[in-house]
Amino acid sequence: MGKTLMLVALMVWGGALSVMGGTQASPLGLVPEPVPGLSVSIWTDKSEYRVDDEARIYVNISQNAYVYVFNIDTVGRVRQVFPNWYSGNAYLRRGTHVIPDRPTYRLRVVEPTGVDTLQVIASLQPLSLHTGSQGDPFPLIAPDPDRGGAQIQGLVPEPGYGQFVTAWTSFRILPRLVAPVPQPTPQPCPPGWGWTPYPCPPSWSPPHVPPYGWGWYFYDGSWHLYIGTCPREARFCWHLTADGRWQMTFRLHFGN
């Protein structure tokens, strides 16, 4: 089975964002330099996620480049999503790529809820970033965007030795859906029960039990549920058969 990446708070606010250069500062404080013919964009597969959902990230580059994707979670931690321990080659050919790019790992959304950001960098030169380890396959770059951006900026090639472009998109996470509690299944009263001196058995069945594998017995002045066979202490038991009909089992006692 593949490993799982625990990404915090993935939910896209909008579509892909592409930046080809200029002076606009990124969420990590990086100012991209113009690279003729190189552009990059990033987006995710859904407009919103819930805790435990699996996510996919898409990156498009206009020409071959080294690609790096970072996640800034709701509390500001910067984690490197790609490349990673399971997929360590940052060099990608032009076109659209999906992350995870291999069946050996997945991206799963976890708490806390809130707004996250994905930022991608495409560079003509490789950056000296670690791809993590088996114990930390998606390495933590920094505890906040300022220090994360400063660390990455120190690895970006100097002007004239290869520029980079960057893009980003923001997203939010929703709480996980809570499964509804199974409710008892109403059942009809046994036929002809009105003339007996006992009240009708409770008109519900236990959840997750086959309709023919349980029943009620009257003992010590009240009804009791049994699962399986009629207990020895019961004088009689009502139970449902496979066709949904009530049947009675009773015991005869002779002497003491």
Write up this protein:
- The strands form 5 sheets. Strands 4, 6, 7, 8, 11, 12 and 13 form a 7-stranded mixed beta sheet that branches. The protein has a 4-stranded antiparallel beta sheet with strand order 2-3-5-9, with no helix packed on it. A 4-stranded antiparallel beta sheet has the order 17-16-18-19, with no helix packed on it.
- The protein has 1 helix and 19 strands.
- A hairpin with a 5-residue loop joins strand 6 (65-72) and strand 7 (78-82).
- It has 2 domains: 3-174, no CATH class; 185-250, no CATH class.
- It has 256 residues and is mainly β.
- Helices cover 4% and strands 38% of the residues.
What is the average of the pLDDT values? Answer: 79
Secondary structure category: mainly beta
Helix content: under 10%
The run of helices and strands is EEEEEEEEEEEEHEEEEEEE
**How far is the first residue's CA from the last residue's CA?**
63 Å
Overall morphology: rod-shaped
The main sheet comes to: 7 strands, mixed
What proportion of the residues form beta strands (DSSP E)?
35-45%
* Rg calc: 31 Å
